[in-house]
Write a structure and sequence with these properties.
384 residues; alpha/beta; Immunoglobulin-like; 6-stranded mixed sheet; 5-stranded mixed sheet; binds adenosine-5'-triphosphate; AAA+_ATPase; ABC_transporter-like_CS; nucleotide-binding; ATP binding
């Protein structure tokens, strides 16, 4: 069965209770106000007329500033909130990494909480029983199995929540901002498991402010503003829209939904995946991919080192169907292999970790810094 999510004109209204502004300054007046002045109930709209569709294979980024409605939308997709109106169809089993303490009870033991949380996630006790040991082992809490949950540290509770939530592979994965309360050893384990779960999911929906993470992981995006859908499209144009909105905010402008459409200036981005020595002194081969936000294919590369600029004398196009699929491009010719001569330098490590690789429409106009992959950065850091 294929997985998909379809939201059709979803609205979400929630009740809020507001207390009248109190004027009393004496303790007697305050006491009476607090005791008899009942709060006024009203409804506010948290999500307003949201429509989008996500199909199998999609990785959707939810973008927007603080309070835009990202977590609320994830909760609606996870059925924590029922939309007030509109129609939501979610086909496929859902795994939500939203609230790590969902279903936990402080008075119950760690073992009991595995069942409580698992059942809150819709898993059966018979399924959970054989999983208990591996969940405890992953969380590093074997020695706490019969302790009450409230005696655990907040990091330990987070580890337990994460271990239970990710113990099963689901079709759809909903994730809020990366939960980072563990120590470095646990975070390394957690990252590995997350990558495997994301890889095994048919659909991933991720709300985050981490642009690099979203760009690397997602192929589609939606931008929310004030609970409304400001933009929906591929990840490139969605990020552009988001950056445009943030720039307006920094300039103290009031954002309207109409303003949120991406600005016409194209931006170039890409990744450097390899830098190796070529045949000849000072010749380097630089491999990677780059695109611009208008979907055009830039073809210029330059290296910048110690204030000097070394322009690529040849840039060969390389087919990259993986990047095309990931970013939803119309062509796969976004990869490149550039030859650059840097006089007096023999090995990549001598280029140094301050090296910047710049992309542009032509090598003479290359001024957009491209991201250097971790493995390449490590090579540049190597000492001879
Ligand atoms: N249960 C609720 N009752 C009243 N208001 C709420 C409720 N839940 C969320 N809100 C409000 O809805 C708005 C959107 O909140 P939400 O948590 O979805 O934002 P967000 O985009 O995830 O923000 P952030 O980037 O800060 O995490 C906020 O103004 C928040 O105060």
């Amino acid at each position: 069965m294929s997985a998909f999510i379809r939201a059709d004109r979803i609205n979400l209204d929630v009740p809020i209770f507001l207390q009248r502004e109190r004027e009393a300054t004496g303790w007697g007046g305050m006491f009476l106000g607090a005791a008899f002045d009942t709060p006024k109930r009203s409804l506010i709209r948290l999500l307003d007329d949201i429509s989008f569709e996500i199909r199998e294979g999609d990785r959707l980024a939810i973008l927007g500033r603080n309070g835009a409605g990202k977590s609320t939308l994830l909760r609606v997709l996870n059925r924590v909130y029922q939309p007030t109106s509109g129609e939501l169809t979610v086909q496929g089993s859902c795994q939500a990494l939203l609230n790590m303490s969902l279903g936990f009870s402080g008075e119950a033991t760690v073992r009991e909480n595995i069942f409580l949380r698992g059942i809150a996630m819709g898993l059966k006790a018979a399924f959970l029983r054989p999983q208990v040991e591996s969940i405890l082992e992953f969380a590093g809490l074997e020695h706490k199995v019969n302790h009450r949950l409230r005696t655990l540290s907040s990091g330990q509770k987070m580890r337990l929540g994460f271990a239970i939530s990710t113990s099963v592979q689901h079709d759809i994965m909903l994730m809020d901002e990366w939960v980072g309360a563990g120590d470095s050893e646990f975070m390394a384990k957690a990252k590995e498991r997350m990558q495997s779960r994301v890889g095994g999911s048919k659909i991933v929906v991720l709300a985050s402010h981490s642009v690099g993470l979203l760009r690397d992981m997602c192929n589609k995006g939606i931008v929310l503003e004030g609970g409304k859908l400001a933009y929906a499209g591929d990840i490139t144009s969605s990020l552009k829209c988001y950056h445009g909105m943030m720039a307006q905010l920094r300039a103290n402008k009031v954002i309207t939904i109409e303003d949120a459409a991406p600005s016409p200036a194209a931006q170039i981005y890409g990744v450097i995946e390899e830098i190796r020595q070529g045949d000849g002194d000072g010749l380097f081969l630089v491999k990677g991919w780059m695109v611009d936000t208008e979907g055009a294919l830039p073809s210029g590369i330059a290296l910048e080192m110690d204030g000097h600029r070394y322009v690529a004398h040849a840039v060969e196009r390389v087919r990259r169907p993986d990047v095309m699929r990931h970013l939803g491009l119309h062509t796969d010719e976004c990869g490149f292999l550039a030859s650059v001569h840097v006089s007096g330098v023999l090995r990549p490590s001598q280029l140094g970790e301050q090296l910047r690789v710049l992309g542009g429409s032509s090598s003479d106009h290359a001024d957009a810094p491209l991201r250097i992959a971790a493995a390449v950065a490590a090579t540049l850091r190597e000492t001879d």
